[in-house]
C-alpha cells in the first residue's frame, strides 16, 4: 500500500513500483492499493483507471485528493490524511485479510494503519521506513517535539513498530535510530537501488540531453530530483555565485525537478543574475537515462539534523550514473559513510557554501581525479546497490515473515 505508485515519477513511486513488479516476477501474488497520481501530470483533473494491471501487478486506486503539496504544508497534510482514511476504510471492509501488508511511510503515518488493522482484523504488516517521522517533521520545523501531535504520533509509532511482524529500514543509521527510539524491534535493512541496466554512465559528447542544454563543454554540476525541504540546495546556489565570478566559463549548475524550495532557488539565481545556473522541470521517464547522466558532478544533499531519519534515494541514481559525488551531508549520514568508504566523491557540511566552492575547484583543477571518483561511484553501485539484489533481499524478508 502506498500513496504513490506508477505512473507517478517521484523517487518513492519508482522504487515501490519496481519492488511490486520484481516481487510479482519472483512468484509472489502482489496487489497494490494506491491513490491517483500526483506527480505524473500537471493536469490534476486527469485520472488513471480505478483498477488496472501494470506488468502483472493488480492496482486498485482508492479515493484520494491531489492538491499541490508545493503550495502549502496544509494541502500536503490534507492529501496524506485523506489517503490514510480511504486506505483504512478499504482494508477494514476488504473480504480477504490473508497475506502481509507492506506499508511504506508514504504517507508517513501509514505504519499506524497496520497496527490498528492488526488489532481489528488480524492483518500481519511490515512497515518500510523511507523516512522516520515524526522526528523528521520536527527537524523540518513542521512540528514541535513537545507538542501534542508529536507525542500522540510517537506513542502510536511505538506500538506500530514494536508490534509489526518485521520492519524494513533503508539504511543502517535509520535502523539504529529506530531501535534507539522504540526499543527492540524485528528489523531488516534493505537499501534502495537503481536499475543499472537503464542508468549507465554516458559520455556527454554522446548524450543528446547534454547537447540540447549546452552541457557538453563546461564541467556540469547536476542536481536532479525533488527540491524538497530536507535538501540544502541554497548552499549550492550560493557557491555558484562565488564560482561564477572566478571561473565563469568552466562551469554550469543544472537543477532538474520540482519541490517546495524550487521557487526560492530560482529567486536566488535571478536576483544575482547567475548565468551559470539553470532550472528544468522533471523529465519524462524515457529521457531519464540521458538527463541523469548529463553531469560530471552529482549533488546529493541532506539538511543538517536529518541523519538517521532519511536516506536520499537519488544517491543510488547518482552513483549508478558514474559521476563524482558532491555529498552535502553530516558525517553521521548513510551517504557520508558510503562516500568515505568508497572514495567516490567529496563530503561537505550543510550550510557551508565555501566548502562546496573548494570541492568544485579541486575537481576543476584535477579533472582526472573527478573522473576516477565517478568510476569508483559506478563500481560501488554495481557491487552493492543493483536493483535485482535489493528485490531479492525483499523476497527473502517476505519468505521469512510469511513462512
From TrEMBL:
Matching CDD domains: GT4_WbuB-like (cd03794)
Cross-referenced SUPFAM superfamilies: UDP-Glycosyltransferase/glycogen phosphorylase (SSF53756)
Keyword presence, Acyltransferase: no
Transmembrane segments: none
Chain ranges of the Glycosyl transferase family domain: 209-379
Organism expressing this protein natively: Haloarchaeobius litoreus
Residue runs in coiled coils: none
Alphabetical list of Pfam families matching this protein: Glyco_trans_4_4, Glycos_transf_1
Signal peptide range in chain numbering: none
The protein's name in its UniProt record: Glycosyltransferase family 4 protein
Single GO MF descriptor: transferase activity
Gene3D superfamilies assigned: Glycogen Phosphorylase B
Keyword annotations from UniProtKB, A to Z: Transferase
Residue ranges constituting the Glycosyltransferase subfamily 4-like N-terminal domain according to the UniProt record: 15-193
Amino acid at each position: 500500500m502506498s500513496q504513490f505508485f506508477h505512473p507517478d515519477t517521484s523517487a518513492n513511486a519508482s522504487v515501490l513500483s519496481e519492488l511490486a513488479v520484481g516481487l510479482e516476477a519472483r512468484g509472489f501474488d502482489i496487489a497494490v492499493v494506491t491513490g491517483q497520481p500526483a506527480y505524473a501530470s500537471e493536469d490534476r483533473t486527469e485520472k488513471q483507471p480505478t483498477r488496472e494491471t501494470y506488468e502483472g501487478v493488480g492496482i486498485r486506486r482508492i479515493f484520494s485528493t491531489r492538491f499541490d503539496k508545493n503550495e502549502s504544508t496544509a494541502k500536503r497534510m490534507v492529501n496524506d490524511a485523506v489517503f490514510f482514511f480511504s486506505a483504512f476504510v478499504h482494508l477494514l471492509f476488504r473480504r480477504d485479510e490473508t497475506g502481509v501488508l507492506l506499508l511504506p511511510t508514504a504517507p508517513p503515518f501509514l505504519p499506524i494503519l497496520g497496527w490498528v488493522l492488526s488489532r481489528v482484523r488480524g492483518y500481519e504488516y511490515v512497515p518500510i521506513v523511507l523516512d522516520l517521522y515524526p522526528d523528521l517533521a520536527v527537524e523540518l520545523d513542521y512540528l514541535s517535539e513537545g507538542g501534542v501531535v508529536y507525542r500522540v504520533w510517537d506513542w502510536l509509532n511505538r506500538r506500530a513498530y514494536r508490534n509489526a511482524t518485521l520492519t524494513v529500514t533503508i539504511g543502517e543509521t535509520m535502523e539504529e535510530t529506530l531501535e534507539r527510539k522504540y526499543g527492540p524491534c524485528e528489523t531488516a535493512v534493505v537499501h534502495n537501488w537503481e536499475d543499472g541496466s537503464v542508468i549507465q554512465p554516458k559520455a556527454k559528447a554522446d548524450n543528446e540531453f547534454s547537447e540540447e542544454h549546452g552541457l557538453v563543454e563546461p564541467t556540469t554540476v547536476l542536481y536532479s530530483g525533488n527540491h524538497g525541504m530536507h535538501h540544502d540546495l541554497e548552499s549550492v546556489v550560493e557557491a555558484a555565485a562565488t564560482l561564477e565570478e572566478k571561473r565563469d566559463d568552466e562551469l554550469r549548475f543544472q537543477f532538474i525537478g520540482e519541490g517546495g524550495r524550487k521557487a526560492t532557488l530560482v529567486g536566488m539565481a535571478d536576483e544575482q543574475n547567475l548565468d551559470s545556473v539553470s532550472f528544468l522541470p522533471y523529465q519524462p521517464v524515457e529521457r531519464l537515462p540521458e538527463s541523469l547522466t548529463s553531469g560530471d558532478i552529482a549533488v546529493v544533499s541532506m539538511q543538517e539534523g536529518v541523519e538517521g531519519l532519511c536516506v536520499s534515494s537519488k544517491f543510488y541514481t547518482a552513483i549508478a550514473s558514474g559521476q563524482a559525488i558532491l555529498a552535502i551531508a553530516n558525517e553521521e549520514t548513510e551517504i557520508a559513510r558510503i562516500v568515505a568508504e568508497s572514495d567516490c566523491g567529496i563530503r561537505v557540511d550543510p550550510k557551508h557554501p565555501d566548502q562546496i566552492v573548494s570541492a568544485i575547484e579541486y575537481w576543476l583543477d584535477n579533472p582526472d581525479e573527478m573522473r576516477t571518483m565517478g568510476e569508483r561511484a559506478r563500481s560501488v553501485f554495481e557491487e552493492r546497490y543493483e536493483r535485482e539484489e535489493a528485490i531479492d533481499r525483499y523476497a527473502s524478508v517476505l519468505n521469512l515473515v510469511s513462512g
